[in-house]
Amino acid sequence: xxxxxxxxxxxxxxxxxxxxxxxxxxxxxxxxxxxxxxxxxxxxxxxxxxxxxxxxxxxxxxxxxxxxxxxxxxxxxxxxxxxxxxxxxxxxxxxxxxxxxxxxxxxxxxxxxxxxxxxxxxxxxxxxxxxxxxxxxxxxxxxxxxxxxxxxxxxxx
Length: 157
Prior knowledge:
Blueprint: H1 12-25, H2 29-43, E1 59-68, E2 74-82, E3 86-92, E4 105-109, E5 118-130, E6 133-140, H3 146-156
Antiparallel strand pairs: 1-2, 1-4, 2-3, 3-6, 4-5, 5-6
Helix pairs in contact: 1-2
């Protein structure tokens, strides 16, 4: 949860450079600044959110997503973070999603550096209410598809 607002002045040249990065990555200026700060601080090991239990490193992403339930009904959502193993999406509170290997959802989203959206099939792993929405954590079904390979390449950048 983001609970702190920071306001500061920067030079026009720095703002222009940040705006170019934002445009290239299809992020807001605020999201770009947060991402750069986060990567710098985590990279220098100045901040730790505790011991990571996940197998893959996660990257924060902010972008629209389209979720399809098992019946093929589409719901709008927002991609929150991604790893080589899965994705976290904010979905409407009514998004019907069962947890378990037998349940599958489809997610359409774009990586920040990508020009075209990717479609992946996932196993939902957790569904948690948050601020009138639900956060769905899902693991990718690695079928060797071009979308999955694009995600793996994107995680290396």
